Amino acid sequence: MSRIEIDLDKCSGCGMCSRSCPYQAFEIQDKKARWIEDRCTLCGACLTSCRFEALSGEMPVREVPDFSDYRDVWVFVEQHDGRFHRSGLELLGCARTLADDLGQRVAAVVLGNNVGETARQLIEHGADRCIVVENSALGYYQTCTYAHVLAKLIGKYKPNILLLAATHLGRDLAPRLARRVGLGLTADCTRLSIDPDEKILQQTRPAFGGNIMATIVTRFSRPQTATVRPGIMKALDPDPARTGDLIAEQVDMAECREFTKVLECVMHKDRPVDLTAAKIIVAGGRPVCSDRGIGVLRDFADAVGGEIACTRVVVEEGFLPPERQVGQTGRTVRPEVYFACGISGAIQHKAGMDGSRYVIAINKDRDAPIFEMADYAIVGDLFEILPALTRAVKGE
Amino acid sequence: MDIVVLVKQVPNTTEVRIDPKTGNLIREGVESIINPEDRHALEAALQIRDNTGGKVTVLSMGPPQAIDGICEALAMGADRGILLSDRIFAGADTWATSTTLGRAIRKIEQFDLVLAGRQAVDGDTAQIGPQVAEYLGIPQLTYVQKLEVREGAVIAERALEDGCEHIEAPTPVLVTVLSSLNEPRYPTVAGLIDSTRPRAPIEIWNGADLGVKAYEVGLAGSLTQVVKTFTPKGARNTQYLEGSPAAVAAQLIDALRKKEIRLGE
Ligand SMILES: Cc1cc2nc3c(=O)[nH]c(=O)nc-3n(C[C@H](O)[C@H](O)[C@H](O)COP(=O)(O)OP(=O)(O)OC[C@H]3O[C@@H](n4cnc5c(N)ncnc54)[C@H](O)[C@@H]3O)c2cc1C
Ligand SMILES: Cc1cc2nc3c(=O)[nH]c(=O)nc-3n(C[C@H](O)[C@H](O)[C@H](O)COP(=O)(O)OP(=O)(O)OC[C@H]3O[C@@H](n4cnc5c(N)ncnc54)[C@H](O)[C@@H]3O)c2cc1C
To answer: Which atom of ligand 1 is nearest to the CA of A329?
Structure first.
């Protein structure tokens, strides 16, 4: 433990150390300085203050611990009623690349009740092994119960990397778990890669509403843990020929303290559209806020077999439901083709569609920012262009 | 019910830029505000206090200027403000931030409820609420859009992606709120004036007051490090299509076909 030493023979009681200290951690008594350990934060501000060299101390030096026994890339796969959340499959695709770069394995981790053999699907999607914990307490997500189980698994297996989807569940669970196990945690990543020299995980994420990107590393804790924005990473096509182990784990629930009680869960009636799975998206902005506007959009979407989507403005005006909103506070999509019709291209919208393979923008205003993010730019009135496109597609 | 509200001072815009020389965020000249969701957390606290009695304490970690947010919170009706400010707190990730806030809440001692925003508009992680709850060993309820207080418990409606759930948790409990929870009141002018008086109920705590060591907090106590920040740039090569609507439509279909994408199949 670091401390500050005062050589009383050299100390003149001049008080320079006390003046240099932000915390009143020195007292001058009988012309001698005294160090008050409780008030000291070991910030080191005093170390150069003494003109008589009476004061010395060694500050704690930070070292990167040896993590060589931490191996493998883990993906926590969300499941509801035996169905895996798409985000988990996307994460497996990404984990596969990371694990191959490291020469390590991919493990999918599933918690639930009655998961059984369905976990094989995760192996088809890229996992080398699948760790399944089944317990009646895990049928419905509760923060502390899930955190308990994952903490135990991490303690037993020592994974190198742990990825969770940045869904509501993932963003509730990951920080709880990280604080419990002592892990650094990067939020809402959109890109992950392995640093070729240090072999650590480079985690890139948007902050300030997508205006800034930050690349973050976790040198001081393992597993290197991140939540990943759904809809960004690409799931692998299932390969039935892939093989791997299913490991049924038991976790002692006796020490698990769950505080909360779920009273009721209300799901929206019609299963909301899944924009993240759409290959073609036809999105409209402010000018489609009319029955006619939505009609023009829908006609074209029907003709090309796409889904309609929109900006926040259209949701706020009540013309389309929130699950069709694309952007920072809506869905993140990466279709093959994204049509942006009458959309200005605000950064918050861009955050949700930037990963599209091809972007086609239709806008009256030649200077609209959306054109900067488009592969094909059409300057014109969407009420003329879209019907012309619909006709052209149908006439093929 | 005694309530602690976590409020963060954030820039009043997300249009921040990076200094091309230093690679740091340029924060000068940008006005600071209370993080929008934190105002909703504070409003919830004030309503509960007004109904059940008790005391509302606002707690903020930040540079000395963050006191402005505390003054504003007092002017909205909070009873006490505490600013955690120290050079050693600077550069904290959410691990170190939750250590610092957690220590301070322990020092406050008397609390039944901790309220926070779901997410701050600058760091954007939504990690602080759950991490502080775990630090304190109390339950957490995140994404809360309705909140009801009972004797020794709260009942919350949490937003899920495709629905919502109703959850009960015993106090003390930490709740992170969405802006749909309520409509925050405005600070009063008299309150703003009072909050800047020398006798305003504001305290400033440093690292020694919290009993932390420099290596536990701030950059030195962080488990993650930001190694690079940059402005995202669109890497697309924009091609303009011109002509009559029908001509443009034909060009587009043609161009996409060359990329092996057929519209309409
Ligand atoms: C915290 C926060 C979160 C947000 N989250 C989101 C989000 O998730 N998703 C989102 O979309 N927005 C979001 N926004 C809002 C965002 O900032 C923009 O306000 C919004 O995206 C603008 O929508 P718009 O492009 O439809 O409208 P506008 O900006 O009004 O643009 C309309 C465009 O249509 C063009 N136009 C008008 N008539 C025609 C016509 N007949 N033919 C062709 N072009 C025409 C105009 O030239 C203009 O460019 C968020 C904002 C904040 C502050
Ligand atoms: C570009 C960038 C990226 C970052 N990425 C990460 C990352 O991935 N992982 C990581 O661990 N850290 C990250 N950080 C650091 C992180 O922003 C800080 O730790 C910050 O102090 C708290 O995180 P937040 O703003 O994300 O808060 P959030 O968790 O989003 O805030 C939620 C709520 O917690 C309360 N709260 C948060 N901060 C304070 C405070 N200082 N005082 C009082 N109440 C508060 C408020 O009620 C707020 O509404 C990043 C910082 C930057 C600049």
So the answer is: 8
Q: Which of A167, A217, A262 has the CB atom closest to B167's CB atom?
A: A262
Classify residue B239: in a domain, yes or no.
Answer: no
The nearest alpha carbon in chain B to A214 belongs to: B229
Its domain, for residue B130, covers 2-216
- The answer to the question of residue B236 being in a domain is no
Q: How far apart are CA A171 and CA A330, in angstroms?
A: 16
- Domains in chain A with CATH codes: 5-56 (3.30.70.20), 73-253 (3.40.50.620), 275-394 (3.40.50.1220)
- B230's enclosing H/E stretch is strand B225-230
Residue B227 lies in a domain: no
A326: DSSP letter: B
A217 within ligand 2 shell (Cβ under 6 A): no
Write out chain B's pLDDT in tens, 265 residues: 999 999 999 988 766 777 777 667 777 778 899 999 999 999 999 999 999 999 999 999 999 999 999 999 999 999 999 999 999 999 999 999 999 999 999 999 999 999 999 999 888 899 999 999 999 999 999 999 999 999 999 999 999 887 899 999 999 999 999 988 999 999 999 999 999 998 999 999 999 999 999 999 999 999 999 999 888 766 688 899 999 999 999 999 999 988 878 886 5
B61 vs B90: CA distance, rounded Å: 9
* Distance of alpha carbon A138 from alpha carbon B166, whole angstroms: 18
